C-alpha cells in the first residue's frame, strides 16, 4: 500500500483489516489468502482484492472488498476487473439503495446496506458517493495506486 505518510499507512492498514473481517463474517468465507491493495484514502475508503482460501463450491475465488466510513461490500472480479470499475459498480449499487432510502423504503432487490433506510442515512451516503464520483472524474483516487 502506498500512503502519503505513516498516519495514512496506519489508516489504510486498519481498512485492510476491516476488509478481511468483513469477508470472514460471511459463512461461505473460510479464510483469506492473498490480498492486494487496489486504491483508497486512509480512514475514508479502501478497495482491496482478496482471495478466498480455501474456496468453497459456488463461491468466487477473488473478490473486490470495499470498506471505509461507508457500507461495506464485496464485488465479483469478473464484472469489474479494476479498482476504479469496482468503485463505479459500488456507486451504482449504492445509488439504488440511496434512492429508496430517501423515501424511507427498503427492498430485497437492492444491494443490502446495514443501516436504516432513512433520508438522513441516504443523504450521508449520497454525499460520499458524490465525492467518489468526483475522485474518479478527476483521477485523484486513481493516481494514488500507481
Tell me what the structure shows.
A hairpin with a 3-residue loop joins β1 (32-41) and β2. The protein is α+β, with helices and mostly antiparallel strands and 146 residues long. The termini are close together. It has helices spanning 6-24, 83-102, 119-138, 140-143; strands spanning 32-41, 45-52, 62-68, 73-76.
Quick summary of this structure?
This protein is α+β, with helices and mostly antiparallel strands.
Could you list some keywords that capture this structure?
146 residues, alpha+beta, 4 strands, disordered C terminus
Number of domains: 1
Beta-strand proportion: 15-25%
H and E order: HEEEEHHH
Largest sheet: 4 strands, antiparallel
Global outline? globular
The helix content is 40-55%
Arrangement of strands in the largest sheet: 1-2-3-4
Distance between the termini: 10 Å
Structural class: alpha+beta
Number of DSSP strands? 4
Q: Treating each run of at least 4 consecutive H or I residues as one helix, how many helices?
A: 4
**Uncertain parts:** 142-146
Q: What number is the mean pLDDT?
A: 92
Radius of gyration: 15 Å
